[in-house]
Predict the structure of Signal peptidase I.
Amino acid sequence: MQLTRKTKVLRELREWLISIIAATVIALLFQNYVYAQAEVHNISMQKTLAEGQRLIEDKWSYRFNQPEHGDIVIIHGPESPLRLVKRVIGLPGDVLDVRDGEVYLNGQLLSEPYAEGMTMPLGMQFPYTVAPRQLFVLGDNREHSADSRTIGPIAFSSIEGKAVYRIWPLNKFGIL
């Protein structure tokens, strides 16, 4: 039996439609659970990141590994109505202190070449011990950042992912 031209066209359209739907579903799952794009919306990470820059966020690795000191994380949880981009300073059990505009981690002065400005307590009581399943985060632009000093510690469950690449602007493209 020979297929008519109309039947061939309908079969071809159906195959294309199935392929497009499958590709869309896979792309959406990939973006929701593996990698996504994020945008920096404020100046709290300046010197490292500027407002308007676009990042690739790794949502996958924290399913298998814990955040580490110095990681730049995307926060989306009850601590703030906004998605935040901040740097991990304290992990569970760490003791943080802020003295004379500097951060001390477990009694040692923290070397922070990425930080800009003085780190002030902003009403938070130091020394501070990070609780289990929480992180202490700071923005790199210390004098203009809403971070753990003002919104409190960040629950692990509020960490959406880790910023790994800057993709825009192109002249700043690269690994973070």
Observations:
- Residues 5-33 form the longest helix (29 residues).
- Helices lie at 5-33, 148-151.
- The chain has two domains: 1-33, 36-175.
